Fold:
Amino acid sequence: MSKKVAFITGAGQGIGQSIAERLSNDGFAVALVGRHKEKTDKVADKINQNGGQAISIAADVADRDEVFAAVNQTVDELGDLNVVVNNAGVAPTTPIDEVTPDQLQKVTMINTGGVVWGIQAAHAAMKKLGHGGKIINATSQAGEVGNPNLTVYGSTKFAIRGITQTTAKELAVDDITVNAYAPGIVITPMMEDIAHEVGKNAGKDDEWGMQTFAKDITLGRVSKPEDVSAVVSFLAGPDSDYVTGQTITVDGGMVFH
Structure:
């Protein structure tokens, strides 16, 4: 039986890099996808040097054709496709009165469009390969509760939860599960940018911006990317075979259900 293959978008840094490294450690061959290939090249090189199998692919997830091409390249080079992690996203921090049509369109097409195209491409490839698989989408704590200044970002992440539930019902007939993970405050370049912008908008420093999000974490600490990739590992593995349509919150206890 050939090695299982995972496809991860936004894999050049932060949570996406951690997911790629964790799934490689779990035994997957991994395709690392990102807009900036020099970043995914570095992560792929590191994985390959550590005994894993990784390829790096340049693609903009907002472009449907590029997502399909990246999935097809993955199958051609790695021989299969079993897990797709739609992780890529952007997170502008914008007060509601400053949201522009261009920003709304851009962020929606990357965050929400990228998930839709990733699901479509995964479904097409898995049907062609003749087997099921697992699709895993990145939502956010900001997709479960509203946060000030994150109207654009939060709206896309709320949408991804709905897309996850809807497509889980649609794709179950083809033995494909669809789930999501919702990180909280993770120390990544994206989160540092958000904290900076929130602090700047309030006339405060970066640490103040970070604490506006972190102060209500029950476990008393912000998370590492590895906290999130551990949950994605569960969703990508056999222990989650009877889980579909769900969002697992990985926020240290900010939102309770």
